[in-house]
Structures are given as C-alpha cells and as structure tokens.
C-alpha cells in the first residue's frame, strides 16, 4: 500500500512538472505575432501553391526549439570569441558580368562576395543555390515603352538590381528541403542565390530585413538594429556581447546568455535568425517610412501588418512617359523558403502599375493598398 502511495505521489509530481513546462512554452509563444501567412485564396490551389501552415513565430519556435526562457535553441552554442572591431567598408561597385557567369558557379569572385557577403561566408557555402547571373542580366529589358530608373551608386536599390540569381529551372524550396514552387510555376520568375536557414524563420518580412541587412553589412555598417514585434530594438552589438532577447512575463528583454562573439558574418547571420524570431510585419511597417506610389523605387516594399500579414519587396523599377511604372518583385513566404522573383503571369515578368491603381496586385496574396508602401531610412 505504501509503495502504491509513493508511486501515485511521483506520478502527480511528474504531471505537475509537465504542466509547468507546457505553461512556460505557451507563455513564450504568446509574445510572438504572425509575420506572414499563405493567401486565403491563392490563384492556383493545389500542390504548386504555397502550403499554409501555422503562424510564423510559433512555427519558428517549434522548428528552432524554444527553451524555458524563450531563447531559440538554434543559438544555444554561439561561437565564443573576443569582440572584434568593425570591418572596413567594402566596395559596392557593380560586380562584373563575368563574375557570375555559368562557368564560374563553383567559385564566387572576391568582388562579388564583397558586395553580397553571404557568398563569401564559408559557413553558408552549401546552404544556398550557386549564383550564375544577376537580376539585371536575367531580365535586361523592361516592357516596351519603359526605361529603368537611374539609381545612386551604392544605394540599396542599385544593390538589389544586381542580386545574384540561381540557375534558371531552380525550384523554390522550403527550409526543410521540400518543393514549394516547381521551376515551371506560372508565377515564378527566378530564385535568388541566398540561403534560407535551417529553421522556419526567414519568411516574408524576414527576407526583406535579410536583404537590407546584407546590403548594410556589405558597405561596412555594423551599427545594425531591427525592431521586434514587442517594440524593442534588436541591435547586433548586444548579440555580439553575448546577450539574447528573452521573454519575461509579457515583456521581451535582453539578458546575458553566452560569451562574446566576433563581429564576423557567421555571427551576423546568427543574429539575423534571432531578429527573425521576434520581428513581424507590424514591426517592419513601423520601422520604415511611408512612400507615395509616384515615388516608388527599388528597395521599397509593400507590407500588410496583421495575423496573417505579408510583405513583398520591389527589386527594380522602370518607368513610362505616361506615369506608369513596371516593377520586379521578390518575396519569401510561409513556411520559410527561397527568396524568389515573382511574375504576374506566364507571359510577363514585370508588374505594370498605373497612377490610378488603388493597390498592387501580386500572386498568392490579396491586393496591397498603396498606403502600405514603405521605405527604409537607410536605403
């Protein structure tokens, strides 16, 4: 009888411990807000359309593993090391067209890697499709009657115009490897040669942050920070010092968690995953400035905050004399997947918009009202 009583007591204690652990996990996830989701009415339902899944941070937490203090287990073993001084600014000169020729896919030129830093990061060497050409080389001609807009050298827009692309025929893959969009999908124009990451993190708003942050890194900027959905800043410097964002009650705070790390690109890439864990479409919209559609330029983006929400990046712009604009658009989505260039139809790559249009119509999402057009301050 006594033995059975002890067994019952142990069972009750174990059950209570499990409930506490579950409560801690649910509390950690409660602070996160959806960053983007699949369209409620995709134009092509079926296997070729993006697969709807759970909300961004919750699914990301499950993929990365959230500890009891809401820290992604993905970063539990950050590389130790002394804090290094910021690297000198890299040249953002346009890479020569030969740098990304198909014959050179096994090695990236130093000049190209300086402009697109992930290409020169050994820790990401096998994580992204190899680059074969650039956005400008792949899509050299806007629609008849349109001319590409002039861009300041070294600007975010000029950098996007020369984004490295994977080979034609590359599908859009999810972070876990499955195909989301086959190469012949009617709305897929190209895949950007950049890694997705190992967890379900780099989704729609995250991909825009990723590209903007990589551009800033390439020009030598190390004073980097993006905003969490909870409202706090997520600066790179605090990550380097070994601090991590942690949920305490209903607040997100920074706490020391590990030793300092070098200010190198692998540390930067790990910090970005930390940003993706806590950022969302609402934070992205608040961190950028509204832009009039008449002023739309490469580097701008449309974002609809919400649960669900979505965001799409403008990677190039051409204009016609009648005021119309032709846009090249790129996005990631849910689940985390290759950043890819969209096309409106099988017969077109550029999205043509008129000054009279009330919204930007894209595949896989409801129209974006122009009031949600945004631009980063550093652009």
Automatic annotation (TrEMBL):
InterPro entries: DUF4846. Keywords: Signal. Residues 1-21 form the signal peptide. Coiled coil: none annotated. Residues 40-50 have a biased composition (Pro residues). It comes from the Bacteria. Residues 51-64, 83-106 have a biased composition (Low complexity). Pfam families: DUF4846. Residues 37-106 are annotated as: Disordered. This is DUF4846 domain-containing protein.
């Amino acid at each position: 009888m006594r033995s059975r009583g002890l067994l019952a007591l142990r069972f009750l204690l174990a059950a209570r411990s499990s409930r506490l652990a579950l409560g801690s996990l649910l509390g950690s996830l409660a602070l996160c807000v959806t960053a983007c989701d699949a369209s409620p009415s995709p134009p092509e339902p079926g296997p070729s359309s993006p697969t709807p899944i759970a909300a961004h941070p919750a699914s990301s937490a499950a993929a990365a593993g959230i500890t009891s203090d809401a820290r992604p287990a993905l970063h539990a073993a950050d590389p130790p090391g002394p804090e290094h001084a910021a690297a000198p600014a890299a040249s953002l000169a346009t890479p020569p067209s030969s740098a990304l020729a198909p014959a050179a896919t096994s090695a990236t030129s130093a000049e190209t890697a300086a402009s697109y830093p992930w290409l020169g990061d050994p820790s990401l060497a096998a994580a992204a499709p190899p680059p074969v050409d650039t956005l400008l080389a792949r899509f050299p001609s806007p629609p008849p009657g349109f001319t590409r807009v002039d861009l300041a050298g070294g600007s975010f827009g000029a950098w996007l115009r020369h984004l490295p692309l994977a080979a034609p025929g590359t599908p859009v893959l999810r972070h876990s490897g499955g195909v989301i969009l086959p190469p012949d999908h009617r709305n897929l124009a190209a895949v950007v040669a950049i890694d997705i990451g190992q967890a379900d993190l780099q989704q729609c708003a995250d991909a825009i942050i990723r590209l903007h942050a990589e551009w800033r890194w390439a020009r030598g900027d190390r004073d980097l920070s993006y905003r969490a959905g909870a409202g706090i800043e997520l600066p790179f410097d605090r990550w380097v010092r070994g601090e991590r964002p942690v949920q305490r009650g209903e607040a997100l705070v920074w706490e020391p968690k590990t030793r300092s790390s070098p200010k190198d690109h692998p540390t930067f890439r790990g910090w970005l995953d930390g940003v993706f864990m806590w950022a969302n479409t609402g934070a992205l919209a608040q961190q950028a400035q509204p832009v009039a559609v008449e002023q739309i330029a490469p580097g701008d983006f449309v974002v609809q905050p919400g649960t669900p929400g979505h965001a799409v990046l403008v990677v190039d712009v051409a204009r016609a004399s009648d005021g119309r604009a032709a846009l090249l658009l790129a996005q990631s989505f849910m689940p985390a997947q290759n950043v890819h260039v969209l096309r409106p139809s099988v017969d077109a790559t550029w999205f043509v918009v008129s000054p009279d249009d009330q919204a930007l119509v894209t595949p896989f999402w409801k129209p974006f009202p122009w009031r949600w057009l945004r631009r980063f301050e550093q652009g």
